[in-house]
Amino acid sequence: MKFTEEHEWLRPEDDLIVVGITEHATTQLGDIVFVELPEVGATVLKDDETVVIESVKAASDILAPLDGEIVEVNEALAENPALANDDPVGDGWFFKIKPSDPSQMDSYLDEAAYQALIG
Amino acid sequence: MSDLLQTPLHDMHLTLGAKMVPFAGYNMPVQYPMGVMKEHAHTREKAGLFDVSHMGQVIIRGADYAAAATALERLIPVDILGLGENRQRYGFFTNDAGGIMDDLMLANRGDHILVVVNAACKAADIAHMTAHLQGVTVTPVTDRALLALQGPLAETVLASLNLAAADMRFMDVATLPLNGVSCWVSRSGYTGEDGYEISVPAADATELAEQLLSHADVAPIGLGARDSLRLEAGLCLYGHDIDTGTTPTEAGLNWAIQKARRTGGTRAGGFPGADIILPEIAGGAARKRVGLIPQGRAPMREGVLLFAQVDDDSPIGQITSGGFGPTVGGPIAMGYLPTAQAATGTTVYGELRGKRLPLTISPLPFTPANFKR
């Protein structure tokens, strides 16, 4: 698993990458009450605003970590946004992307580097 | 952030694991480890303890209560003279344009008036009163904390410290010993629930708060849930839903201006902006504050522009408070719309992230009030 400095986690699953946000992020955001997921089939570029999440406090954008095609989104999360708080690296995943350039993964942090980042 | 002020309960907040944020110049708890959603629900179901010591407590003293009341009525369009002893009323300072300078609570405490104002406005309010009130003294109370105990079990909890708390009705005030300390208690709050606000000497505040928190049904509640609770209760937040550019009638606050101060009343007018406010009470205002329920799931917050039709060019109003209502279980908001386009049940459109999304104009409050009248 890899991590972005924006507190996303990226988990390879066959030729796809599953994307969500870390427990550190959900703790900082507080209770999440709304998640707007991208359309399945959408093509995104790295750093495109791809997901909107709203906590009780504020709205935040989640950026696409990679170029690629959105192949699946977590409909259960849209139905129950609290999943992102309850199980951020499991049932609280956001979307699965088919990367067009898998080497973009190389620039991201490994777990030790991410843990160092969040102190 | 070292210049932020601290309330007398600051160390307790840190011990409780609060997340602290700057608010109106104070370092305040926005939430505790329980989190906003659970804190909100706990207050609606049991009892929540809030630190509201940042708010301004001010004593107005004249030759007697009537002298102080008469003086204060020059700045506040409320029947203060007719307020019974040991009773409290909601009110506001108005300006010459009929706008609201701050909203407040005022209490008849026998030989003086206790005014409680918003933290962000308190310096201006004190200056305003000091400059314009004649024949009275204006004394900021700087040595007391202010706690709010809110929720359906608040009565049981406070009565465990002093049985007389249970005998108070909504908007009664009393001086009650709690924990051996003389406290100024009112049966009021900002959540839509039954409850109390308790002014306690700063040196005794933490011990009283800890005693209240030791009750199994009481949890500490931060400013985050305070905001979602008051929004569901349809209560205005100064600087957002009301400000110097909103009149009492626009804000739906005519009820706070009693008959004695209205046209034809025994002490009609005589406050700043009366020439604007009194005709509006009689004839209505061009716009009004309404409740709004987004038809989708996305919260719409302060500043979202409102349109009559999905493709209109010009907005007709905007949201002044909005977010997620944990008890409602969905997004809620308040905002201003032209009175002619503000009928309950009407659909309007809010612009969110470039999309126009529908909202339904809804009655306020969103959750029923549970006051003990």
TrEMBL record, chain A:
Q: Which Pfam families match?
A: GCV_H
What species is given as this protein's source? Yoonia sediminilitoris
Origin: domain of life? Bacteria
Q: Which PROSITE patterns does the UniProt entry name for this protein?
A: BIOTINYL_LIPOYL
Q: Which keywords does the record carry? A: Lipoyl
Q: Which SUPFAM superfamilies match?
A: Single hybrid motif (SSF51230)
Q: How is the cofactor bound?
A: Binds 1 lipoyl cofactor covalently.
Q: Which gene encodes it?
A: gcvH
Specify the protein name. Glycine cleavage system H protein
Q: Record's HAMAP family?
A: GcvH (MF_00272)
Q: Which residues carry this modification: N6-lipoyllysine?
A: K57
Family matches, as NCBIfam families? gcvH, PRK01202.1
Q: Does the keyword Cell inner membrane belong to this entry?
A: no
Query: Tell me, what does this protein do in biology?
Result: The glycine cleavage system catalyzes the degradation of glycine. The H protein shuttles the methylamine group of glycine from the P protein to the T protein.
What cofactor is this protein dependent on?
A: (R)-lipoate
TrEMBL record, chain B:
Coiled-coil boundaries: none
A Pfam family that the UniProt record links to this protein: GCV_T_C
Gene3D superfamilies associated with the record: Aminomethyltransferase beta-barrel domains, Aminomethyltransferase fragment, Probable tRNA modification gtpase trme, domain 1
Q: Give the catalysed reaction(s), semicolon-separated.
A: N(6)-[(R)-S(8)-aminomethyldihydrolipoyl]-L-lysyl-[protein] + (6S)-5,6,7,8-tetrahydrofolate = N(6)-[(R)-dihydrolipoyl]-L-lysyl-[protein] + (6R)-5,10-methylene-5,6,7,8-tetrahydrofolate + NH4(+)
Cross-referenced InterPro entries: GcvT, GcvT/YgfZ/DmdA, GcvT/YgfZ_C, GcvT_C, GCVT_N, TrmE/GcvT-like
All residue ranges annotated as the Aminomethyltransferase C-terminal domain in the record: 287-366
GO BP annotations listed: glycine catabolic process; methylation
Keyword Nucleotide-binding applies: no
Domain GCVT N-terminal, which positions? Answer: 9-259
Per UniProt, which keywords does this protein have? Answer: Aminotransferase, Methyltransferase, Transferase
Amino acids binding substrate: E197
Q: Would you name any one GO CC term?
A: glycine cleavage complex
According to the UniProt entry, its GO molecular function terms are: aminomethyltransferase activity; methyltransferase activity; transaminase activity
Top-rank taxon: Bacteria
- Enzyme Commission number(s) of this protein: 2.1.2.10
Q: Please report which protein family the annotation says this sequence is part of.
A: Belongs to the GcvT family.
Instruction: Extract the PANTHER family matched here.
Output: AMINOMETHYLTRANSFERASE (PTHR43757), AMINOMETHYLTRANSFERASE, MITOCHONDRIAL (PTHR43757:SF2)
Q: What is the protein name given in its UniProt record? A: aminomethyltransferase
Q: Which organism is it from?
A: Yoonia sediminilitoris
Please spell out the taxonomic lineage of the organism that makes this protein.
Answer: Bacteria, Pseudomonadati, Pseudomonadota, Alphaproteobacteria, Rhodobacterales
